[in-house]
Amino acid sequence: MRPRLVILLIAYVAVLTRADALLGRPQNAEAERPAAPETVIRLSIPLQDGQLNLGTLLGRLAAEIGMDGEKIAAACDESIPVRSALGGSTIRLINSLTNDVLTLSVGADEVAITIDRVSWRQEKAVFHKAIQRLIEYFAPEAAALARASFGVVVHRPGEPPAALSPENAPRQAVVLIHGLDDAGRLWRVLIPALHKEGYSVLEVTYPDDQAIADSTKFVAGLLEEARRAGVERISIVAHSMGALISRDLLTGEGSYAGAVEGGDRFPRVQRFIMLGPPNHGSKMALFRLGSEARDQVVRALSGDGLLVGGFFDGAGEAQDDLAPGSAFLTALNARPLPSGLPVTIIAGPTSPFTGGDVASLVERVDKLVVTKYGKMFDGAEVEKAMSDLVAGVGDGCVSIESTRLEGVEDHVIVRANHLSMIRPFGASAGTEVPPAIPIILDRLSQDRPARP
Predict the structure, then answer these.
(1) DSSP letter (8 states) at residue 349
(2) Tens digit of pLDDT for each residue in 174-219?
(3) So what's the pLDDT on residue 5?
């Protein structure tokens, strides 16, 4: 990855990992807050013969977020000439494209970096788009690779997975739609189980940190491609936030608009199965975005070439949409599901935590990384968010009550948590079939004609 791009990426990751950015606290939050953190981050990186040492820069940024800055600095010994014409123009370009949320300025013997945290929160979507444009300009190959990670993969029995095309498109398929930060291993047990019953699978991957409405448009485009390729009928199996995308897709005016036949534009939808859907929101979503941000830090500092995927994944707007009572959920829940469509909801009451665990967890959380800019997590907020997810009333991410929808009678509760309902997790990994899988297979079998 080119040096000039690395500067911007790591600075941006440093902003992501601040407490306010991680937790995305709404303005009307009732939880007690620590003393107001500084609103501007200022760093000074000394120049060496007019050169900016990237190791020094990375080390300083890493130290600011509680990581081993010295070790990281020692792993990089690359420099760039910031006083050259190209270096100066690059700095001006970065400042311009980020609307001065991030500013770099070259002094007599240093490069000063200023990050306006307030402006970043206000303009994070604009800032995120600016990051994408910079990546596309400086590292087009990486940008293309990041975008290529989203799309539809076809899994046909007895054949290797492949990108969707008219040559491999099945006429009928089960479409799998993941939730927030859940792509990849989520379906590794379900897909073979579907193959064993003779089903073809379309695995959908999309930028899942963006606004849910944007994800809906993206997935709608993928299903339009599937229809053009020859897919005629589908059953949708969606996990967590993927169920909200599916509902938005099925009921929104810009897509199916309640008409599951699909016409010439979309495949016909003959069944819809939701796994742990946060139909009325999830308080734990804000902490999962924190995990996503920390994951991006690790990948950035390890030199993973797929790091830029995090910058094409959205600016975290999904967190706001998942909040109980959000504008997105209010509008979505005002629209009924399509009539005549068989719908199943599978929920879990087995949270990884019990009421007795909460106090010790809160104590540990309160001791997590504390910088001069504030705490990365707040134990009081964790306790409040978990209040309706323990003691048998939630799966660790979504409460049972949040999964329910008016008019859906096929609501099944399985002894599992948010992940173990669909893939091996924890002590049962490799020894038990996730409890949602037999239910999924049973419901899908109801759409098949009787066999001799």
Answers:
(1) -
(2) 999 998 866 567 899 999 999 999 999 999 998 877 889 999 999 9
(3) 45
Which of 422, 366, 360, 423 minimizes the C-alpha distance to 390? 360
Q: Which of 103, 109, 99 is nearest to 47 (CA)?
A: 109
The reported pTM is 0.67
Domain ranges of the chain: 3-138, 148-284+316-353+389-445
Residues listed for the chain:
452
Residue-wise pLDDT for 408-421, tens only, equals 999 999 988 888 89
Cα distances (Å, whole numbers) of residue 445 to 174, 194, 359: 12, 11, 45
The secondary structure of the chain in percent helix, strand, coil, rounded to multiples of 5, reads 45, 15, 40
pLDDT of residue 24: 36
Q: Which of 383, 229, 242 has the alpha carbon at shortest distance from 250?
A: 242
CB atoms within 10 A of CB 435: 19
- Domain 148-284+316-353+389-445 is classified in which CATH homologous superfamily? Alpha/Beta hydrolase fold, catalytic domain (3.40.50.1820)
**8 Å CB contact between 205 and 150:** yes
Nearest to 56 by CA among 34, 33, 72: 72
3-state SS assignment for residue 116: strand
Q: Residue 345 — left, alpha, or beta (φ > 0 → left; ψ -120 to 50 → alpha)? A: beta
